[in-house]
Amino acid sequence: MKLSTALAIAAFTGVAPAAPTGEHSVEDYFIGADKRDKTVEDYFIGADKRDKTVEDYFIGADKRDKTVEDYFIGADKRDKTVEDYFIGADKRDKTVEDYFIGADKRDKTVEDYFIGADKRDKTVEDYFIGADKV
């Protein structure tokens, strides 16, 4: 039985037919993992023959000493968390929250910058409806 036929049967009936040869299931054949000593999960993104988990390979994190989460947005080789890199906050002494609306390099909170309240002696709430200079 061809792989495509086996998968079609499994998809239609919900029952996996017997594997073509050996001790493998249709699940093993799903992405060509047959005749190999790996699970289908390992082969899902080409992680076979490597000493990493599939999760590590999900975004090319193999052969690096970082977690997949760190690589999600290119945070590898930097001493920051992924959260810090989410909006380009790397190499700055601010939190991501501070950078969310361009509050970096200012002595204000993000809340203060939300509606342009910086450099004024008012709260963001005061500026919400144009209360500045009143």
UniProtKB/TrEMBL annotation:
Q: What is this protein called?
A: Uncharacterized protein
For this UniProt record, give its keywords in alphabetical order, as a comma-separated list: Signal
Record's signal peptide: 1-18
Phylogenetic placement of the source organism? Eukaryota, Fungi, Dikarya, Ascomycota, Pezizomycotina
